[in-house]
Amino acid sequence: xxxxxxxxxxxxxxxxxxxxxxxxxxxxxxxxxxxxxxxxxxxxxxxxxxxxxxxxxxxxxxxxxxxxxxxxxxxxxxxxxxxxxxxxxxxxxxxxxxxxxxxxxxxxxxxxxxxxxxxxxxxxxxxxxxxxxxxxxxxxxxxxxxxxxxxxxxxxxxxxxxxxxxxxxxxxxxxxxxxxxxxxxxxxxxxxxxxxxxxxxxxxxxxxxxxxxxxxxxxxxxxxxxxxxxxxxxxxxxxxxxxxxxxxxxxxxxxxxxxxxxxxxxxxxxxxxxxxxxxxxxxxxxxxxxxxxxxxxxxxxxxxxxxxxxxxxxxxxxxxxxxxxxxxxxxxxxxxxxxxxxxxxxxxxxxxxxxxxxxxxxxxxxxxxxxxxxxxxxxxxxxxxxxxxxxxxxxxxxxxxxxxxxxxxxxxxxxxxxxx
Length: 420
Ligand SMILES: Cc1ncc(COP(=O)(O)O)c(C=O)c1O
What we know:
Elements: H1 3-10, H2 18-25, H3 30-33, E1 38-39, H4 51-66, H5 71-89, E2 97-100, H6 103-111, E3 123-128, H7 133-144, E4 148-153, E5 156-157, E6 164-165, H8 168-174, E7 181-185, H9 198-207, E8 211-215, H10 227-230, E9 234-237, E10 250-254, H11 313-328, H12 330-350, E11 365-368, H13 372-381, E12 384-385, E13 387-389, E14 392-395, H14 403-419
Parallel strand pairs: 1-12, 3-4, 3-7, 7-8, 8-9
Antiparallel strand pairs: 2-10, 5-6, 9-10, 11-14, 13-14
The structure holds pyridoxal-5'-phosphate.
Pyridoxal-5'-phosphate binds next to helix 6.
């Protein structure tokens, strides 16, 4: 068994406890835990395991010793990465996950596959104002260049939390016949809102002939994956937050209903209805046969969405973090995260700090501030690492955060908030 597998097994199968994590999991993070800081930005850049360095060495090693034979282990590791992401998001088919350098690239690949009939008319989209800049900016550029017409869904103030939340009903009502694609997050980056009613959006979109792309960046690794169950057409996400894989190992997941297996059709040349312009020679049928038929013939299944030469290093980079998350299990991580957030909320409130979160919410809490970036800066000077979005400081404990740390961080947040 791997070191990560043994450490997780040693904790036993029950709920996570701080004592169990301290004894068995903290030692896997000795390098990053040597930092003297109260790290509450786990929703932004996840902390790496020590094993990351060995994994990167394992990427490089066959290159030195075996030169081009290194492609064997490299491609195997990429296949493992795809399988791990599929497992993480609850998708039964590993090849339906396609590595992308960033989530936004996944969105572009989807936009560049539409409309399915290949016509040049502008796409009709429904998207929320709650999408993170990674998707929002791409959408606005397509809109600015006349490639899309977008119905933007505005948030409305939630009476309980006072936060601007997206109402799934508003999204469903905007999906009219003729809409090509709906874009929504499962967990929103600025408020942490878990979008209730995602099922109804997917159902409504499909009834109107539209496709759905879900941004899972703030939910993959936080709430148990339900891709097969929900049945969206696409999902995008990446590794640098909750799966501790750093920047680079992003992904696009495609529902198997849009994939065509190579054996279908005469001569095995059946082509999928959705073909993206974000393509390349690794998406070709029989890439290493080097045949050059006049028309582009795609590989089967999810491989039809690959691009040019892949970057195997991302699979090694993502490996340890994914192994840990999958070994512990997202359901256990979720329960523990909610316990920790409840504790942190209690500590902050005891000290007079207002705390907000929608119900249900993802992995972080919000502290409103008239000068959130300033508060983040002052906290960082006092070695409390957080960040801010749209007037709120985001605080995210993780499995490495102790109760003592949360109490100390709460003291500092309370003091810094009062001082200005
Ligand atoms: C909801 C969401 N989507 C996407 C991203 C990142 O996307 P990309 O990998 O395209 O930079 C983030 C990063 O914070 C995010 O919060």
